[in-house]
Fold Cytochrome c oxidase subunit 1.
Amino acid sequence: MINKIGGMKNLIVVRRIPDYPDAFAGFNAICSFGAELSIISLLFFGYVIYDQLENGLVNKDLSTNSLLKDPDFFESNETFKSNEIKSESIEFLLNYPPMFHTFNTVAIQS
């Protein structure tokens, strides 16, 4: 099937008739490949959803994938609890926001 290509060339091509000029064979192949790829990806997506709903991850804590675990926010992060923050730059060593009139000039780290 020609996907709007016949109208661009001012050709009168009925879309329901599979006979079209040979010049559009490449466009037809590209459209057909895209349609097949869409169907395959839709089937794969359906399988992934089915597998997740049926089997799912039983215990998140035993998983090695860090994305499946609960998020580790600043309040629960062990690095922030132990106050062992080591930084290479000065902006992470300062308290945010710094008090007004803390610096007369911009701080420079040597």
Observations:
- The first helix runs from residue 5 to 8.
